[in-house]
Amino acid sequence: WDINTFCNGVWTGYDWAQTFTTLEDTIVCEPVNQLAENITAHSADLSWEGLDGPTWVRYFETGSAHYKYRYADTTNMLSLEFLKCATEFTWELNTYCNGMWTGYNWPQVFTTLEDTAVVNCEPENLTAGNVSSNSADLSWESIQGATYVRYFPVGTQTYKYAFTIETGVSIFNLLPETDYEWQINNYCQGSWTGYNTGGAFTTLPDTASDFNTAGNEPKTFKVAGMETNEIANFYAFPNPTKMQTQITFTTETVGAFNVRVMNLMGSIIQEQSLIANAGLNTLSIDLGNQGNGIYFVILTWKNNMAKIKLIKR
């Protein structure tokens, strides 16, 4: 190593070379006693010894390159879930040691057990209820767990998706007087079933507050010479919130709006209606009796929908 210093108004250039020698590395960055225990059809507990730093675990079906990852911090153990039954898995470790990551190494294998439990992966009693011109409540029986619902106008591939861990979900912003098909993809016995079983429904005509009583003509509202159904400045404050939050939005449309608060599972926990005025509108939402987490405030009017995320801490 040498030095370049600023002296007498100029840099001296690198000079005055010195040397040093680093020591031998006596720390061994290698795990020992790698174990896969408590193996079931869909889970396994992994553990190891000899590593003190944070560690990533990579696991995959042996022979494939579809990697999944888990972070183990410094606990030297973790549990894997949602594994495929009767399958050999390989797992490897990548640990932070001596100031750098080792890279994935030290492969080990384990094989999950046969799944002997009788599990029904076929949904039953698929029902579309509370169908309106732009929304519907979908429900089913016999299956539980993570489920994706795919819905689309019949004859198209204009797919939209909803996710739930319950046996039902509400969908919005549908087209009026339209035939819809919906299908279920459920996580069952360690894998996704794919979009198979489904149902169908037809949305209703859009008649909500769209006609006056005089001549059955479409009712429109004009503000500053404009006709619109748009909203703007749709906010929640405070957000995150501990209890109450104030919802605000501005609109140039005078009319009925529906406000729903939904959780991540698609369940409606609050609902209210209001007649919005042209300009700024406000309403209060109280989450005091709800658990911490993420919620969605959904504002619907005519065939339109706006959504914002609300966090409770």
Structure report:
The protein has about 325 residues and is mostly beta strands. It has no helices and 27 strands. Strands 5, 6, 8, 9 and 10 form a five-stranded antiparallel β-sheet that branches. Strand 11 and strand 12 (about 135-140) form a beta hairpin. The chain starts with 5 loop residues before the first strand and ends with a strand.
Topology:
Blueprint: E1 6-7, E2 10-11, E3 32-37, E4 44-49, E5 55-61, E6 68-71, E7 77-80, E8 88-97, E9 100-101, E10 105-111, E11 124-129, E12 136-141, E13 147-153, E14 160-164, E15 168-171, E16 179-188, E17 191-192, E18 198-202, E19 222-223, E20 226-227, E21 231-237, E22 244-251, E23 255-263, E24 268-276, E25 279-286, E26 293-301, E27 304-312
Antiparallel strand pairs: 1-2, 3-4, 4-7, 5-6, 5-8, 8-9, 8-10, 11-12, 12-15, 13-14, 13-16, 16-17, 16-18, 19-20, 21-22, 22-25, 23-24, 23-26, 26-27
Report the radius of gyration as a whole number of Å: 30 Å
Shape: flat
Please give the largest β-sheet: 5 strands, antiparallel
Strand fraction: over 45%
Number of strands: 27
Residues in helix, %: under 10%
Q: Give the count of helical stretches.
A: 0
Low-confidence stretches: 208-229
Order of helices and strands: EEEEEEEEEEEEEEEEEEEEEEEEEEE
Specify the structural class. Answer: mainly beta
Mean pLDDT: 83
What gap, in angstroms, lies between the N and C termini? 53 Å
